Amino acid sequence: MTAVAAKRRFWVEDGSSVTSARGVEVLDTPLLNKNTAFTRQERAELGLEGLLPAAVQTLEDRVRRVYEQYHEQPTDLLKNVFLAMLQDNDEVLFYRLLTEHLREMLPVVYDPTVGEAIKRYSHEYRRPRGVYLSIAEPDRIEAAFQDLGLGAGDVDLIVASDAEEILGIGDWGAGGIGIAVGKLAVYTAAAGIDPGRVIPVSLDVGTNNEALLNDPDYVGNRHSRVRGQRYDDFIDAYVRTATKLFPGALLHWEDFGPSNGRRILERYRDRICTFNDDMQGTGAIVLAATLSAVRVAGTRMRDQRIVIFGAGTAGVGIADQLRDAMVRDGLERGDATRRIWCVDRQGLLTDDMTALRDFQNPYARPTAEAREWAGTGGIGLAEVVANAQPTMLIGTSTVHRAFTEAIVKEMARHVDRPIIFPLSNPTERIEAMPSDLIAWTGGRGLISTGIPVPPVTYEGVTYAIGQANNALLYPGLGLGAVVARAKRISDGMFAAAAEAVAGLVSVSTPGASLLPQVENLRQVSATVAVAVAKQAAAEHLAQAPLKDPVQQVQDAMWQPEYRPVRAG
Ligand SMILES: NC(=O)C1=CN([C@@H]2O[C@H](COP(=O)(O)OP(=O)(O)OC[C@H]3O[C@@H](n4cnc5c(N)ncnc54)[C@H](O)[C@@H]3O)[C@@H](O)[C@H]2O)C=CC1
Ligand SMILES: CC(=O)C(=O)O
Ligand SMILES: [Mg+2]
């Protein structure tokens, strides 16, 4: 039996959607469905008369109603489920609502509530979204993508996760599709990436999460994680198929375990258009926040002394970009590397440790240097902070409350404006809350967090806490790459993106945020996109001509508006 390739239900011509679907099939297509906003003529043409109540409403009418319904949901998880159902029913309405209430709803669609939704995925499961690839059937990858009915030029972006390290909550197996869906929702809300031209992908290689393996409702493969050659071959089959079927697509990797994430990126980054968000997107947004902080502190990038607590995917990704920024500020690479101290489970990483991961090796400190720092229980974060006297402390460890009052006060003894970024997500993982950090440093701390937090008032000054989350960066990066039709995603593109974000921030007022506010995410993303597209052109990585990048970026941004729908 041969597989039957699915056909697209609709396409766009002169600003209208044209569809071969009729009746309920139209209402069941989220990017086509306008529900009560279908005009009388559209209802007649598409076989919808009698399937809808009499009133013909506008998008604004519909937004008003769903906003009320949203507020009737009693918990953030149920709000998330409500929005997912809306997205599956009427995608324009979902994106209009989300865009109009971004500060309110981003934490529900994305970090932190997305973490809870992923944990509950099999229980709250209603309908599928995306492509589910199973390690049991690597030879069905092509058929799986073809079931979408998309052509070679129809896809701009694919976000894939194997769900080994979802945010800071660990292995969530098939539920990991939720992070791909959430990241893509942010791409569209923040940067106007066309939601009809993206694919979320679950790479289901099993799970080591016992709770899932023993949960009768679990919807994924019920075996332990496959590793080694079979895993690599599966990833390779995914990359080969995706790039063959959709040669223009950017492949985004999200929430892999540290060794796989790094290895996959190294294998493909010079061959295809791809990036790892946790390593590179995070590194760039943290660099942006650092550039702002350094301006406030009146110091220079090259003068920083940086302690990173949690030297995994995100931590070392941040280290790499901060090191490169110090090199751009005039330091030799070796000298820049020596201004970074990485602390992980085993304490300060030193060069006598045999079990370091290869990407940690460059940051291992000479054993002799650290020997005299050892407290009674080894060289932990407290000893490193006391001895290294850092100007910056970054948390990517998933360890809640790891930045204690004693450690923060010790840091603040040695530096005028301590820069402290507790970046772990979701809320129950953050290394310290900003209100404490500001109090412990007497208002001198320059703070940014991964989760969204409200402003903190301390001794009459209100401190806005910028969200150092890769969501402020990757959407614009993706848009810039799409507009430029970039062949590769280079380190230079991340540096350009970071500088563009930092350039949007005015830090002259006391308590000003180190990063732009989430309300301005579309402006931030457009600015990043222009910088990234220009950088791609400068590095001869752009395949599209860039005559007027500012206008090209604006033109490329999808808007949540109902289009006329015609029968075809
Ligand atoms: N703000 C942002 O944009 C981002 C934040 N993150 C957050 O960073 C955290 C880490 O994420 P990944 O790097 O992807 O995970 P990962 O698993 O690659 O890295 C975590 C590291 O922390 C270490 N660690 C765990 N317990 C520790 C302890 N008690 N003491 C010292 N080190 C310890 C682990 O050994 C590992 O090396 C998560 O909470 C995640 O949500 C990750 C990416 C982006
Ligand atoms: C924000 C993000 O990508 C993470 O926490 O993994
Ligand atoms: Mg992530």
Automatic annotation (TrEMBL):
Keyword Metal-binding on entry: yes
Keyword Ribosomal protein: no
Keyword annotations from UniProtKB, A to Z: Metal-binding, NAD, Oxidoreductase
Coiled-coil spans in chain: none
Enzyme Commission number: 1.1.1.38
Residue intervals of the Malic enzyme N-terminal domain: 87-269
Enzyme category, top tier: oxidoreductase
Domain spans labelled Malic enzyme NAD-binding: 279-537
Top-rank taxon: Bacteria
GO molecular function, one term: oxidoreductase activity
Record SUPFAM superfamilies: Aminoacid dehydrogenase-like, N-terminal domain, NAD(P)-binding Rossmann-fold domains
Family label: Belongs to the malic enzymes family.
NCBIfam families, A to Z: PRK13529.1
Entry protein name: NAD-dependent malic enzyme
